[in-house]
Design a protein that fits this description.
alpha+beta, eight-stranded mixed beta sheet, 7 helices, 24% helix
Length: 320
């Protein structure tokens, strides 16, 4: 077609948007304002995002009213009235929009579920949480939904530290086996109560699609753009107690925490990635300290937790 060109073996619309995020050169037929623009004009695409008609393919593949079809190197899923998505071989994402004016929702799934799956296909571990850069190292903050991950990350930003990832933390092993965190994109998702706790108004920020009380907050000047070593993980848990408690996690429980906080971990088995995940997380435990923090849900504790984590970081740095 006249409006397409062959770039790196892909037929891509000539006016496609070019971005750099998650450590990859991305060519997209959809505008993704959250991502950083590509500086290297002639860069070969490593991830391609295209519009495609997947309706017949979906109907042929789906069984028993499932929303996901998972095969080795391929994931197909359907979000009613929003889009059908196909992620293949860690290289391409195809999208069929199903309704007009749903681009906000499409981007939410594209930058979340789709990218998490694509990272798995590339054998890059996607942890679910927030990554904070402290003195040239990254600490991952993980926990269940509502545990306070993004709120704690925001408290670190208020202290002058930088965000390296929000929601998905991509971790790869370098040639020496050291875990390295790849920067994602300079936005953070914050609940309304978190904004209020930091005396921030909602006026400058846009609600995240259908989540009226969660907002997308740009982090351009508070975002770490360099890949950095992962030094530790802090798992947050809310409790009915009144005091903050911290303990170091040891032995096999460390592997369980890494599994629990892997993004979309239920996909690992159908994608034939359980062995890869076990090998990767076992190597991670050779390099990381993992802590579990219990925090009272009755009060705002983010500032206290920042000091607690900084003290742990300082203690470990002094012992190196």
């Amino acid at each position: 077609m006249d409006n397409e060109e062959d770039i790196g073996g892909y037929m891509i619309t000539k006016n496609a948007f070019r971005y750099y995020a998650f450590g990859f050169h991305i060519y997209s037929e959809f505008e993704l304002p959250e991502l950083s623009n590509e500086d290297q004009v002639e860069a070969t695409p490593e991830i391609v995002i295209k519009e495609s008609d997947l309706c017949k393919y979906w109907n042929a593949k789906v069984k028993d009213n499932n929303y996901f079809v998972l095969e080795k190197e391929m994931v197909l899923f359907h979000v009613p009235n929003i889009a059908i998505f196909l992620i293949e071989k860690g290289e391409s994402i195809y999208i069929t929009p199903l309704s007009a004016n749903k681009m906000d929702e499409i981007r939410l799934y594209l930058l979340g579920t789709c990218m998490g799956i694509l990272l798995m296909q590339k054998r890059i571990l996607p942890l679910h949480g927030s990554g904070i850069a402290i003195d040239g190292k990254v600490y991952a903050i993980v926990g269940d939904c509502g545990a306070g991950k993004s709120t704690l990350a925001r408290a670190f930003l208020k202290k002058g530290y930088k965000l390296i990832s929000d929601d998905i933390i991509p971790v790869r092993l370098n040639k020496d086996g050291n875990p390295i965190v790849i920067p994602t994109y300079p936005y953070q998702k914050l609940w309304l109560e978190s904004l209020q706790a930091f005396e921030m108004t909602t006026n400058p920020y846009k609600p995240i699609a259908y989540r009226e009380e969660k907002f997308s907050v740009p982090m351009e000047h508070k975002f770490e753009t360099n890949s950095l070593p992962l030094a530790g993980i802090f798992e947050l848990k809310k409790t009915d107690g009144e005091e903050i408690e911290i303990k170091e996690i040891r032995n096999l429980e460390r592997l369980q925490i890494l599994y629990n906080h892997t993004f979309r971990n239920t996909f690992l088995q159908p994608l034939d990635l359980l062995e890869w995940h076990l090998i990767t997380t076992s190597k991670l435990t050779d390099w990381l300290t993992i802590y579990q923090i219990e925090r009272p849900k009755s009060r705002f504790t983010a500032k206290e937790l920042v000091e607690l984590i900084l003290n742990k970081h300082k203690g470990e740095s002094d012992n190196e």
